[in-house]
Amino acid sequence: MNKRQFKPSTRTKMGETMKRVMDLNSDMGEGFGPWSIGEGADEAIMSQISSANIATGFHAGDPNIMQRMVSYAKQYGVGIGAHPGFRDLVGFGRRDIKASSSELLNDVIYQTGALREFAHWQGVRLQHVKLHGALYMRAAVDEEFSIALIKALQEIEPSLYLYCMEASVTYQVAKRMGHPVVREFYGDRNYDKTGSIVFTRQVGQLDPATVAARALRACTHGVVRTVEGEDIAIDFDSICIHSDTPGALALIKATKNALTSNGIKIASLSEVVPR
């Protein structure tokens, strides 16, 4: 594998441009069979967001849940995205699996195709793809896999947005290959000084006001405080809060209220990142 370290882009000034419009996304449908995750608040969360990343069966989700999530998204006018992960139900897709780029790509296409058919069945379109957990982090540093993924998306459906961090190889490859890309800010995750999130398998209870203030500060000042205790510049098009974070609905509501109260509109992805 061709892996490289990525350093965030430098800016002469932090917070030069205040965000006026923002996508708000969450990972949805991450239960399995009779087991639910996210405190059973899927529909309530769906009513608050503008884009949904729907689990596609490998790390979580199943056909019945996928169908239900697509139905909720259609009901609330939410953009539908495939959320493929490693074949790892036990580890919730947060354990790295040693596999070739071609194997991983086949798994992603398989999962994306499944959700696209559920969307087609209900008369709606797939809007985007967002890798899950450890697979997302693998792509962030693996140029070979990122190139293969984006090349495949361009051949299958070139209009599909791809979500990633700005501080990632995936973002650089997407820009170089001219593929529509969405940069994320993680409201419920910590950052390190490289501009990458601090990957964790479990997240504790977070304070809604703190999470909301952090997201608002990123939107208005273009900075985030790292675990090393310093501010770094960050740019993004979408804010993610995971539905499996304890108290996710309260976090999402508080964040949305903080943004809209300060003149930042939550909008469809096509309005935030025009193709």
Automatic annotation (TrEMBL):
Top-level taxon in the UniProt lineage: Bacteria
Coiled coil regions in record: none
A Pfam family of this chain: LamB_YcsF
Classification via SUPFAM superfamilies: Glycoside hydrolase/deacetylase
A GO biological process held by the record: carbohydrate metabolic process
PANTHER family with a match to the protein in the record: 5-OXOPROLINASE SUBUNIT A, UNCHARACTERIZED PROTEIN YBGL-RELATED
Protein name in UniProt: LamB/YcsF
Species of provenance: Albidiferax ferrireducens (strain ATCC BAA-621 / DSM 15236 / T118) (Rhodoferax ferrireducens)
